[in-house]
Amino acid sequence: xxxPIIIIGASHAGVSCAEKLRANGFSGQIQLIDRLxxxxxxxxxxxxxxxxxxxxxxxxxxxxxxxxxxxxxxxLIDGREVTAIDRESxxxxxxDGQCCxxxxxxxxxxxxxxxxxxxxxxxNVFVLRHARNAYELRSAMKGRKSAIVIGGxxxxxxxxxxxxxxxxxxxxxxxxxxxxxxxxxPNISAFFANLHEINDVGIYxxxxxxxxxxxxxxxxxxxxxxxxxxxxxxxxxGIGVLPELGNAKDAGLTTGDGIIVDGMMxxxxxxxxxxxxxxxxxxxxxxxxxxxxxxxxxxxxxxxxCGSSQPPKAxxxxxxxxxxxxxxxxxxxxxxxxxVQYVVRRGKREGGLSVWSYDVFGKLAAIEAVGDPAAYxxxxxxxDLGLSPPPSDxxxxxxxLKGFVASGAA
Length: 410
Ligand SMILES: Cc1cc2nc3c(=O)[nH]c(=O)nc-3n(C[C@H](O)[C@H](O)[C@H](O)COP(=O)(O)OP(=O)(O)OC[C@H]3O[C@@H](n4cnc5c(N)ncnc54)[C@H](O)[C@@H]3O)c2cc1C
Hints:
The protein is built from 11 helices and 26 strands. A 5-stranded parallel β-sheet has the order 3-2-1-7-20. It has a 5-stranded parallel β-sheet with strand order 9-16-10-11-12. Strands 22-23-26-25-24 form a 5-stranded antiparallel β-sheet, sandwiched between helices. The relative contact order is 0.12. The radius of gyration is 22 Å and the shape is globular. It has helices at 12-23, 49-52, 66-71, 131-141, 154-165, 186-198, 246-250, 291-306, 373-385, 391-394, 401-409; strands at residues 5-8, 30-34, 74-78, 82-86, 91-94, 99-101, 104-107, 111-113, 125-126, 146-150, 169-173, 202-204, 210-215, 218-224, 228-231, 234-237, 241-243, 255-256, 258-261, 272-274, 279-281, 317-322, 325-331, 341-346, 353-358, 364-370. Residues 8-14, 33-36, 43-44, 46-47, 81-82, 108-111, 128-130, 155, 244, 247, 276-277, 289-292, 294, 318-320 line the site of flavin-adenine dinucleotide.
């Protein structure tokens, strides 16, 4: 029997890859190794439904139930950390001293949250990446009245909405001049700033200076820009993540802000692939952190390993939920620049809208829709097909977008 395919990381990318290997007809051994104990949880609900749930039915947040691993003949080795990769002998070292040989290795090691030195050893300071973090935060929320979130990105804002729904007053502190500055158009930033403000969330942007306050080792508040002090009982750090490169770097794989891979997710070692949040496709501007990307890159690696045809290219997509609003986006929103255009299109439903972003060459680069799933679907189709409806038409609510897409697709 040949050595197994080993996947390090049993989260969205790793589990998807194991599933796709089976779907591509691979019948050999598959081992999934994760340092976390237990069956993996889905990540997106951890900042949304999980924080709002009472804990009586947390099983519904599992990524897969344990019988799924059995029925797919996939061995889950949980609670075990891979400490080294020996590429020459094609072996892994685990933290209990065990060695495992592999035929092909898939790195789905994801990313870990950035921390703040000043808040490192304080009580009531939280990050949110996996289920244990979410359990800790959920139990700390009980009976609290106030919290601060540092970081106005998607995770910070989703947590702010969940805490607010639980009756906790939240202040969000963001270093840049607008919320979601790295990932969304200015119009969508303004939409969510307004949504949070009408729900009584305090929003502070452009905070260049912050001092963490504490009393007897317990987080007690923040002083911002040397002129305002906000007291609170809990602190959530939502200041981004760093790729989990440790083993890959030590093993001499080519890395940057991620493990560098080609279009089939193959690393600088032909027997090692990297997928999901940790992978950086050679030539891409940055890593993509989303469930869609985890699944898509998993499918690419599995197809390459099995010698199957690659899945068709499609625009990356993402969603977020805050209060009762669902955002759907596709493509990569270009950063603000003189020639970049953001065009707002009113939706048919009350309050629905979409923002269409055009890059410096005037080509459609992304669509973001709130309360307008129809516009999202049509925008995603445009991106997948390489269609670029003229910005002046998009701004006109009477423009027949459906007809435009149908004629472009024909
Ligand atoms: C709170 C939250 C909300 C989110 N919401 C959304 C959303 O609404 N929409 C969306 O599209 N995306 C969302 N995301 C992002 C999405 O969940 C991630 O992009 C996705 O989880 C990436 O999957 P991954 O498998 O690449 O990495 P991860 O999920 O980070 O998993 C990596 C796994 O590898 C394991 N590991 C790492 N190193 C080792 C080692 N040496 N040995 C053993 N195990 C190891 C880790 O324990 C971990 O379980 C959210 C993420 C979070 C945290």
